[in-house]
């Protein structure tokens, strides 16, 4: 295997293929090219690749159709689409469905396409570390993506009404109760009288979509009554993290992706849920160590000797199985190291890291000093805005106890 990765590029224009191949001339990469979807499938049958990049517009089938086939045949392969056409709705739908995991625009002369692809390969190799097999090997059967998630995702993507989305949720009694419980909690309305439609609006469509995914997957993993209270704490912390990120980003005056930021609080907790359900002794060992030493869950893991199979890596590996977009995976994986994240996602990565740190400190009653705020700024965030957000987190956290 080439040291930096194996890539297959698919495009019906030979000059495009030659140009893309040249981007990797100075790297130890095995780059193969195909002129059609049929040729690409033949080459993959002979030897799979780590990364597949295909053009959207091709004469035989479009790139999305090829990626759908590859997703079925080679689910571990990273799938990306390249397009110079305005096909935003189609590509957004494909990413939402997990068919495509990333999207790159033509022309690529104004950004480092090769660098982005190599960064993805490096990150995904970390996420797919073989050490994680012993964690996932204890799970009898991974639950599939629930049908209701696809229905809600499609409705949100299509811009359908709140009434339509509420109608989908109402078909699931336990899910309806969960949405109402969260919508009427102190993290949102706090009044206890919100309707389902009002709860959906207060929680937000992006958060609702991923909350449904996490709640139904948790059901599928088999949550016992003995851990339900702890599971509720994990979900609550994810919701507070979502609200804290939203508060900072809305007041930052900076541009950011709500589709990414609105999902991190909930999705980033999946590794902790897996540990709680399948490795409770390790979970409680880490929680108790963190509480006893006033350190974060991440820091406690390091002190206890968990290096490769950390909660963050478990989270990303699990989410990768469900084709969650790469932008979310890299932000979670590199928590506390926003400089390692793709430049366009660094603001959200820094805010996610900062809010995670603030939430951990506030939950333990640690004083938020100016020095601590400075350490959470990562050199790019406003300490004044962090201080204001810390105050909001403290108020919400204290009310929710």
From TrEMBL:
Coiled coil: none annotated. Pfam families: HDOD, Response_reg. The modification 4-aspartylphosphate is found at residue 55. SUPFAM superfamilies: CheY-like, HD-domain/PDEase-like. It comes from the Bacteria. Keywords: Phosphoprotein. One of its GO terms (biological process) is phosphorelay signal transduction system. Residues 6-121 form the Response regulatory domain. SMART domains: REC. Transmembrane segments: none annotated. Residues 142-338 form the HDOD domain. The keyword Nucleotide-binding does not apply. InterPro entries: CheY-like_superfamily, HDOD, RNase_Y/CdgJ, Sig_transdc_resp-reg_receiver. PANTHER family: PTHR33525, RIBONUCLEASE Y. This is Response regulator receiver domain-containing protein. It comes from Seleniivibrio woodruffii.
